[in-house]
Structure prediction request, 194 residues.
Amino acid sequence: MSVTISGRFDAGPARMAGVSLRFVLDPDLTPELREQVVALWVDVTNAGGAVGFVAPVTAADVRTIADPTLAAIAEGPDRLLLGYDGERPVAVLIFCDNRFHLKAHWCVLKRVMVHPDTQGRGYGVALMREAERLGRELGREALHVTVRDGLGLDGFYQRLGYREVGRLPGALRVVPGDDRDEILMWLDLTPSAT
Prediction:
């Protein structure tokens, strides 16, 4: 499924104009695309992004998580959403199935990332709005993300309608002596919740 999103996205107080991304859900995970996703992951991490690692990382480091993650997408039930600027993938997130029938009505968004050289263009907002739209289309009633405290990411998600529903104190050890809370964020997708 390929969708082009262009125009304005409400990012809370600021509006992002001129955003033009093409989104693809469940792209063919060719070896080239796998390498592009790993390269994006490395660039995001090394620019300070909180996507499972602490900088500095190499492609080999990232592949320890990327390979099983991409296998779970290729084999199902997880799903990959890519945002393209032209032919270049610059935005990624994964719809992770809970793999438990009592939680089938919602899913976790993981590895949410936008390439650092595209920051400030509204791509993060566009990516999350597309995830929200697809979540509804896929029959999900809610989306869940976890956020590393100390980076201000919780404010980004709050501006998009997510609410903090809990914290795991000190759950993320960035380096010895620097433990961060893991913030649990939730977005209701049901009509009565909006």
About this structure: The longest strand covers residues 163-175.
